[in-house]
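User: Reviewer 2 asked us to show a designed sequence for the structure in our supplementary figure. I'm pasting the structure tokens here. Could you produce the per-position amino acids so we can include them in the response letter?
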């Protein structure tokens, strides 16, 4: 690693830290729920152009893409622009889009998930210009839409439509600046249970689907104890989470009901495996099993759609990209904790579906996303810019 360039990165961040914090605050002040990311996309494009990216554009879904360099190796950085709803401001005690700064911490919806990592990525990306020779490497920095409704669906469309064979990917999500090399997958399933309705005063004339549902739920509970364990990602899990009925009143037996199931996937667990396990449970009750699907309109008017199946993934600790990330972390922070994420990210597509070597890193504590405590430590945010810049040097500067 070039020590002179490292010092240059540190000096650059120190000299521009006020502007870099201002950019993050701008992103947090712009509400950008899934399907409403247009204004924040515009601010990101503005910043990429100001920083001097070689090309800045949107794709069909509204992903913002900034490119630096051309050719191979090609590296993809990904962070999402959308946020979950802020909820009642009274629960926060302040306007969640104020971007309040207090004692070196910026508070607000999206600060940790995912605008802190997103802003750090966008700023750091321009440093790749120092390492890239014409035609000998490229970096694509992508602000993705709709991750909160279907992680990886938007980045998957970009990868397929880009025509680029990516050699590496980095997912920028909250990790407290530890290096994440995988996470479990997940899928959502719907079990449809038939019945025959009737008046509750004559239950013998009906076929009560709730009794079938009760047996199915108990078997799902037992299945959870038998699911496989992976040495890196841990154990797969399954949980019945909701039940709905086709019933007009509380003293009517329903015509049918549905059970909704959350399935967390460890390595080797495919959609076919998951569905087959549930079908074996449901067959005696003539119940059906389906993967749930997503169909949402993005801010461009395009439709983002797909099944709710997001693959598990991990990268071996000795892989070049993991080691490059560890070196960048050590150079910036003095240490490198390597682990896996608890939540799911766009890595379900970059590595899980496309097989691209992938790691994840970002500022922010995993305790804070989706909560009224959403926040980002500003010194950690600035340090994340340094880590990402050094990672670009490690991978693209050779």
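Assistant: Here is a per-position design you can include in the supplement:
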């Amino acid at each position: 690693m070039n020590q002179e360039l490292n010092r240059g990165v540190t000096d650059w961040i120190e000299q521009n830290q006020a502007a870099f914090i201002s950019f993050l605050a701008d992103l947090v002040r712009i509400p950008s729920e899934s399907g409403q990311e247009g204004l924040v996309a515009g601010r990101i494009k503005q910043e990429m152009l100001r920083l001097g990216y070689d090309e800045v554009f949107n794709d069909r879904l509204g992903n913002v893409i900034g490119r630096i360099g051309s050719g191979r190796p090609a590296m993809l950085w990904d962070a999402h622009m959308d946020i979950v709803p802020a909820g009642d401001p009274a629960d926060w005690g302040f306007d969640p889009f104020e971007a309040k700064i207090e004692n070196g911490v910026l508070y607000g919806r999206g600060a940790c998930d995912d605008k802190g990592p997103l802003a750090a990525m966008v700023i750091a990306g321009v440093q790749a210009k120092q390492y890239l020779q014409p035609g000998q490497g490229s970096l694509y920095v992508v602000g993705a839409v709709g991750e909160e409704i279907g992680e990886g669906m938007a980045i998957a469309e970009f990868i397929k439509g880009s025509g680029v064979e990516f050699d590496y990917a980095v997912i920028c999500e909250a990790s407290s600046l530890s290096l994440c090399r995988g996470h479990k997958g997940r899928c959502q399933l719907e079990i449809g249970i038939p019945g025959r309705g009737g008046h509750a005063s004559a239950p013998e004339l009906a076929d009560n689907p709730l009794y079938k549902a009760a047996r199915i739920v108990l078997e799902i509970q037992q299945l959870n104890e038998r699911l496989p364990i992976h040495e890196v990602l841990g154990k797969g899990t399954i949980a019945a989470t909701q039940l709905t009925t086709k019933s007009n009143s509380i003293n009517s037996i329903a015509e049918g009901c549905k059970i909704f199931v959350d399935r967390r996937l460890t390595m080797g667990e495919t959609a076919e495996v998951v569905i087959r396990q549930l079908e074996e449970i449901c067959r005696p009750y003539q119940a059906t099993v389906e993967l749930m699907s997503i169909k949402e309109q993005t801010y461009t008017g395009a439709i983002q759609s797909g099944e709710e199946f997001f693959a598990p993934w991990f990268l071996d600790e000795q892989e070049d990209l993991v080691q490059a990330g560890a070196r960048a972390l050590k150079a910036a922070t003095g240490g490198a904790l390597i682990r896996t994420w608890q939540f799911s990210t766009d890595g379900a597509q970059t590595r899980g579906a496309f097989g691209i070597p992938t790691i994840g890193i970002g500022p922010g504590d995993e305790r804070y996303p989706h909560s009224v405590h959403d926040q980002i430590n500003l010194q950690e945010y600035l340090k994340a810019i340094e880590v990402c810049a050094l990672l670009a040097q490690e991978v693209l500067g050779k």
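For the response letter, you might also mention the following. The longest helix spans residues 3-29. The chain is about 35% helix and 25% strand.
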